[in-house]
Amino acid sequence: MSKLVVFGANGATGHAVVVQALCAGHRVRAAVRTPATFRPVPPELSPDLEVVACDVLDRDQVRAATSGQDAVISAIGPSGARSGGLYSGSAQNFVTAMAEEDVDRIVVLSSSGVRHDDPHHPLWYRAVARTLMRELYGDMRAMEHVLEASGLNWTAVRPSRIVDAPATGNYRIGDGENPAGGTAIHRDDLARFVVEAATGDRWSRCRPTLAH
Predict the structure, then answer these.
(1) For 157, phi and psi rounded to 5 degrees?
(2) DSSP single-letter state for residue 15
(3) How far, in Å, are 144, 183, 190, 192 from residue 121 at the CA level?
(4) What is the pTM of this model?
(5) How many CB atoms lie within 10 A of CB 1?
(6) Residues of the chain whose pLDDT is less than 50?
(7) DSSP H helical segments within 39-85, as ranges?
């Protein structure tokens, strides 16, 4: 059993990560901006769940949420198509807080679109990644660079398009590139992979890219 703090735990993927972590027997601290709005988990899982208030751009709050944990998971995301420095700014706070709290393992959600020259992306998607999504993916790329330079035991999970569907366990993983022909990943499969990555070292300092 590990103690995991999940930032962005009230988002669709973050909440799925919380549930998958609890189902796997871990203790979870869900860090959200407004605890009162956190969606409940199945009652049998709730004894191992703690919900705390945290703004990921507030260094002191990030440190408080990280304290006493074995690993950090970030499933944060902006409400729109622009990030406004959310990814890179939070990464700086994670690195500082983890150093102060002696926590070494971090897994963050990035995107397969971060690699805009991925040969396994359709041409139209590569064009979108370079134009309409340029700011968002650029900030994700900056987040990955912050972690890479930190010396932490990091993993940047790059999902393809996330769809709401039950976990199947039937998906492919590319290391730094999208699996050929892959266009989507089921949210629960992604969440389960993130938990497994956070509690092991198989994907340490890698950029696993997931698609069915």
Answers:
(1) -85, 125
(2) H
(3) 20, 8, 19, 24
(4) 0.94
(5) 10
(6) none
(7) 59-66
pLDDT value for 130? 62
CA distance 177 to 54: 32
| CA–CA distance, 21 with 193 (Å, rounded to integer) | 10
CA–CA distance, 30 with 7 (Å, rounded to integer) = 6
Q: Scan for tokens 């420095």, then name that residue.
A: 85
Query: What is the DSSP-derived secondary structure letter of residue 33?
Result: S
pLDDT tens sequence across 170-185: 999 999 998 988 889 9
Residue 38: Cβ within 10 Å count: 18
The one-letter amino acid at 55? D
From the options 3.40.640.10, 1.20.1290.10, 3.40.50.720, 3.30.565.10, give the CATH code of 3-211: 3.40.50.720
Residue type, position 184, single letter: A
Q: Is the dihedral of CA 94, 148, 80, 121 positive or negative?
A: negative
pLDDT in tens, 114-141: 887 777 665 556 555 666 567 998 999 9
Domain ranges of the chain: 3-211
Cα–Cα distance between 44 and 40 in angstroms, integer? 11
CA dist 39 and 162 (Å) reads 20
